[in-house]
Specification:
Blueprint (H helix, E strand, L loop, with lengths): L5 H5 L8 H4 L3 H10 L2 H4 L19 H16 L1 H5 L1 H10 L7 H13 L5 H9 L3 H19 L5 H30 L4 H30 L1 H22 L22 H17 L1 H12 L4 H29 L1 H18 L6 H21 L13 H30 L1 H29 L1 H4 L3
Helix pairs in contact: 5-11, 5-12, 5-13, 7-8, 8-11, 8-19, 9-11, 9-19, 10-11, 10-13, 11-19, 12-13, 12-16, 12-18, 14-19, 14-20, 15-16, 16-17, 16-18, 17-18, 17-20, 19-20
């Protein structure tokens, strides 16, 4: 039709194209539009009026393989970092015994904070289409740095290899992997994030047990090599199974892009997560030390952390299943409030039984936030800004992780455990209030969808 002479078409009655005809030849439509009266042209549908279709799989072989790969990555990165307590105790009494415990603790603090701080950059690179390059490079750096720990002898070597290198390499995975999961799961996103977080809990259970069992038998260097081989196997599975969807948007532009922060709801939610994380790790960091101070045996006090982590792992999976029906934020807010109650009661627990109950309650209450805190932010903006939003959120959370526990420890040292519990609880309560504000903002603007946020 587009090739016919214009004068011939003037002799024929005006033809109004249907939407189906637009998909064949857009140029023909433009020529026909010129031949019609203006009042008829205004009624012709345009290509820009088509509504985008959500093609998220929410299942299928490829989607479940991606989730399996994400769990393997969480097992070998976040799970490995959860084993830091074993290395802290070993370094204090052997290789780094000349260094103070607080100095040694900076290795683990830097490692865990860099799990999130650099995601601002790496998630932006995801948006620009460099996920595969980042995944492979970070895997190599993480594995090599872990093997090098076996050769370390002085403090700065451990700080470089185990603190900085493994932390930055793990930061390549955390934000982008969550964004990749959101490309494959929408209606089942809560389940996907819950299983992803459970992979980290599983690694945090298996790797410490492995380290405790092997160090007395084969020594520290070979224990590190065994752990490095486990990490290499897990990251290999992750590299083979996780991938970015072809239909996902790739956005070119500057490396640092803070345009998502123009959204008031997104900005408030970032601050909500920041304040929750200021108190998040205080319990697991100091529950064993405070138990020893009130007369609980050392061997039993360390089980409190394991009890808390185990209950948190179960809670992460169940919260993922529940959030798909109730909404992530509807689940997180009441459970964060329960964590606030635990912090207020915790300093008054003086017996082993009461400490066990407190540990169980805190593990259950913190599980939903640990697995779902990134879920609402995936819908607080355009789809092509996923990586940028995740990066900004994770970077703010990483800063909170770096300073949260030390601030709480300073409060305990100067004002005592009751003030410490009130401080940590108040930070989390303020974060929950900010989440309620975000929920109100989004439900008011789009009640049909956000009533289940």
């Amino acid at each position: 039709m587009a090739s016919r002479d214009y004068s011939e078409r003037q002799e024929r009655p005006p033809y109004v194209p249907t939407p189906d005809s637009l998909s064949y030849d857009e140029g023909a439509f433009k020529d026909i539009e010129k031949s019609l009266p203006i009042e008829k042209c205004t009624a012709i549908p345009t290509l820009q009026e088509s509504t985008p279709i959500d093609d998220t799989p929410d299942g299928g072989l490829h989607a479940w393989l991606v989730l399996f790969g994400a769990m393997c990555i969480a097992f070998t990165t976040s799970g490995y970092m959860s084993a830091w307590g074993v290395f802290q105790a070993y370094y204090e009494h052997s290789i780094l015994q000349d260094s103070s415990p607080s100095t040694i603790a900076w290795i683990g603090s830097i490692q865990q904070s860099f799990l999130y701080i650099p995601t601002l950059i790496f998630s932006r690179l995801l948006d620009m289409g460099y996920f595969r390059t980042m995944l492979t490079s970070a895997s190599v750096v993480f594995i090599v740095a872990t093997f090098l720990i076996a050769q370390c002898h002085v403090y700065w070597q451990f700080l470089l290899c185990q603190g900085l290198l493994t932390g930055v390499a793990a930061g390549v995975f955390s934000g982008p992997v969550i964004a990749i999961l959101s490309q494959w799961f929408r209606k089942r996103r809560g389940l996907a994030l819950g299983l992803y977080a459970a992979g980290a809990s599983l690694g945090g259970t298996v790797l410490p047990i492995t380290a405790k069992a092997l160090i007395p038998t084969i020594g520290f260097p070979w224990t590190i090599r065994v752990i490095a081989l486990i990490i290499m196997f897990g990251l290999a599975l992750g590299n083979l199974t996780i991938k970015q969807r072809r239909s996902s948007s790739l956005v070119k532009g500057s490396l640092f892009d803070f345009s998502p922060m123009r959204s008031h709801a997104f900005l408030v939610y970032c601050f909500a997560a920041f304040f929750v994380y200021l108190g998040y790790y205080s319990f697991t960091t100091y529950v064993a030390a405070l138990a020893i101070n009130i007369g609980v045996s050392t061997s039993f006090s360390f089980y409190l952390v394991s009890i808390c982590n185990a209950c948190s792992g179960v809670s992460r999976i169940t919260s993922g299943l529940t959030a798909d029906r109730t909404g992530a934020m509807n689940l997180m807010i009441p459970f964060i409030t329960l964590s606030v109650v635990v912090y207020c009661v915790w300093p008054f627990a003086r017996a082993e039984v009461s400490l066990v109950i407190i540990s169980v309650l805190y593990g259950v209450s913190i599980g939903p936030f640990a697995s779902l805190f990134s879920s609402p932010v995936l819908d607080l903006g355009e789809k092509d800004q996923l990586g940028r939003r995740i990066g900004i959120l994770m970077s703010m959370v990483g800063i909170a992780m770096l300073v949260g526990a030390p601030i709480t420890g300073a409060v305990d040292k100067s004002r005592g455990p009751i003030a410490m519990g009130l401080y940590a609880g108040s930070m989390m309560l303020f974060g929950a209030i900010l989440m309620m504000i975000v929920r109100h903002m989004k439900v008011k603007s789009k009640p049909s969808y956000w009533s289940k946020i």
